[in-house]
Design brief:
Layout lengths: L4 H4 L4 H15 L9 E4 L5 H6 L4 H15 L9 E6 L19 E6 L4 E9 L6 H20 L6 E9 L13 H6 L2 E3 L5 H11 L11 H14 L3 H7 L5 H18 L8 H7 L5
Parallel strand pairs: 4-5, 5-6
Antiparallel strand pairs: 1-2, 2-3, 3-4
Length: 282
């Protein structure tokens, strides 16, 4: 199931090596032969997706992430998005000591401050036994690893989700509705916004983010900050615990303008041009 890095992502070896080092450290892996296929979602075209060796459900994950990137979702602005194909047989990242669980994909999402490592596993849950229950519970238990990792890197976030191909009424004798499963990190691939729900949840409800209720006007202003600066809403919610919204807007909007000036994307006027435009030279 591996897709060669070179065929989809030119010159991505250094990024992949950095991720491997990060995963070895986080999960205390002593093997040096981690092996991944890396998809650079931001630049991935439809032909490349269809050419990749994926089954139908895996392809839906890749296509869903690609669609988010191509639609320029505000919460992805300013971020680098990679989709990594996890491997089995001691070449990838696995969970649990008594049986090896290898989630199919690892989303690696970075911005100037935070990086998110998101494990995604598209799978059926019609036979819901002890192993399936533990896989679902990884959504919660992975936070133990995150807490340890964030002692060294406070801006690192770990997440795990099941992308179920089984509808909720066919899981565990249909005892629980869809929102019950969503709260436990299970989302449903037959939903058009499944991938969007997962990525937004990972960005906005990361461990350590405040869960304060915000009024609609504050939410609107935070949405504007996200759109203008490319940082996540989770980041600004955390900032609200430290400073006022006015201070946050003043600082980060100014920084965004400064960055556009540095990149040549913002027009700059000299003092003489301003004086002339205002009629102050007369």
């Amino acid at each position: 199931m591996n897709a060669s890095t070179s065929s989809i992502v030119p010159s991505a070896t250094d990024k992949l090596d950095r991720l491997k080092a990060l995963l070895r450290e986080m999960f205390q892996l002593d093997r040096g032969d981690l092996d991944f296929g890396l998809y650079r979602i931001m630049n991935m075209k439809a032909g490349e997706i269809s050419a990749a060796p994926l089954d139908a459900n895996e392809r839906r994950v890749v296509e869903g992430l690609s669609a988010l990137a191509q639609d320029s979702a505000p919460y992805l602005q300013g971020k680098k998005l990679f989709l990594i194909r996890n491997m089995t047989g001691n070449r990838g990242v696995s969970f649990f000591d008594d049986f090896a669980y290898y989630p199919d994909f690892i989303v690696w999402l970075q911005d100037a401050v935070d990086q998110h490592v998101i494990f995604l596993d598209p799978k059926g849950l019609s036979q819901f036994g002890e192993k399936e229950s533990r896989k679902v519970n990884l959504h919660t238990s992975i936070k133990v690893t995150e807490k340890r990792a964030r002692e060294r890197d406070p801006n690192l976030h770990l997440h795990a989700y099941i992308l179920s191909v089984t509808p909720p009424e066919q899981i565990d004798d249909g005892r629980h509705p869809e929102d019950y499963w969503n709260e436990r990190g299970v989302h449903f691939l037959n939903k058009r916004d499944c991938i969007q729900q997962v990525i937004q949840h990972a960005l906005e409800l990361s461990d350590g983010e405040t869960t304060m209720k915000l009024d609609p006007e504050t939410e609107r202003r935070l949405d504007l900050l996200v759109s203008e600066t490319g940082r996540s809403k989770a980041f600004y919610r955390r900032e609200l615990t430290k400073r006022s919204l006015e201070d946050i807007e003043d600082y980060y909007l100014a920084m965004a303008v400064l960055e556009r000036v540095r990149q040549g994307e913002e027009k700059v006027h000299s003092s003489s041009e301003v004086r002339k435009a205002l009629g102050l030279d007369d």
